[in-house]
Structures are given as structure tokens and as C-alpha cells.
Amino acid sequence: MRPKFYIFSVNDRNTTANYFVRALKKMKFNVVYLTKNFDARKLKVNDIFFFIDPVRDFPFFLENAKCQTIAYLIDVHLQLKQRLLFSNFFDHVFVAQKEYVNIFKNYRNLDKKKSVHWLPLACDPQIHFKKGLRRQFEVAFVGQINKLISKTRYKMIREVLPRFYTNDYNKFYRNIDMGFTY
Fold first, then answer.
1. Topology adopted by domain 4-118
2. What is the residue extent of each domain of the chain?
3. Is there a contact between 118 and 101 (Cβ–Cβ < 8 Å)?
């Protein structure tokens, strides 16, 4: 019997977690998508609990989970201390920024059953690749530029992008729009 995947993330159609849901369902896994107030004591031994950044909640009693627990931590340069603390609740941690892997390895108490790995962000060709389009922009940006969250990104975008013919980098882009923009 295949394990049941419990994916815990935000309730947002543009989140990274949705790519994992699609891939797991394509491989015929039973996937349950959770966004808040989940009691991890309900997990069974053969289940897999997969925590994917960003999140707005944290599951209750995760330390008592009987199954394998996985975290995919994205943008770990933001709120690093919080993510380091979170990482101790998981058997396996994947980090999107390669230069932070050793920081997590050194922070976590790793035994042979626990691990930290690099897993770079990627794209889904079915959603992001738009064949036969001509380039519209010299430079394009799709993402968040909240100066309270990332002052460096905000400053760089505000200084660099106005020098080029670019998209409206203040606009919110849906995943399906990214291919047209890039």
C-alpha cells in the first residue's frame, strides 16, 4: 500500500506546494492538503508528512508523529532563526538555498535517521514554458518585493529594474502568467 502524503502549506494557488501535489498525484499517491490546525498525532506509521514553506500555522504535536516528516524550507535567508528551530521537528529537511545547507546541518542534531539536503526551486514546464513566444522584456521579475521582509531585494529591484525595459514588477503574477512574462 502506498503511503498517504499530508502536505502542510499555505492556502494559495500560487504556492510551491501545488507543484508537489500535482507531481505526487500524477504518481498515484493519495495526497491530503492541509493549511492549518492539524493534529499530527492522527498520522499513521506509513504516512508521510511534508511541510512546505511558506506556512502560516504549525501542526500540533509534530514531535509525536509516528511517520516520516519532511520539510522543504524556501527563502531561508528570511527568518533564518525561525526556520532553524522548525527544522528540528523534521526527519528530513530540504533547503532551497544551497549556501544554507551546512548551517542547517550544523544546527540540527543529526543522527543516521535525519538529514539535510539542497533542493533548488524549479519550474513546471506544463505551466511555465510557453513555446514560440518572442522576448518582450530586457529584464523581468515575478515575485514579492516587500521591503519589510527583504530590504535587500526591495532595494535592488527598485534600483536596477527601472534602467531596463521590464514588466510591471509591482504586479502580482499568477503561476500561469510567469511563462508569458519570462
1. Rossmann fold (3.40.50)
2. 4-118, 125-181
3. yes
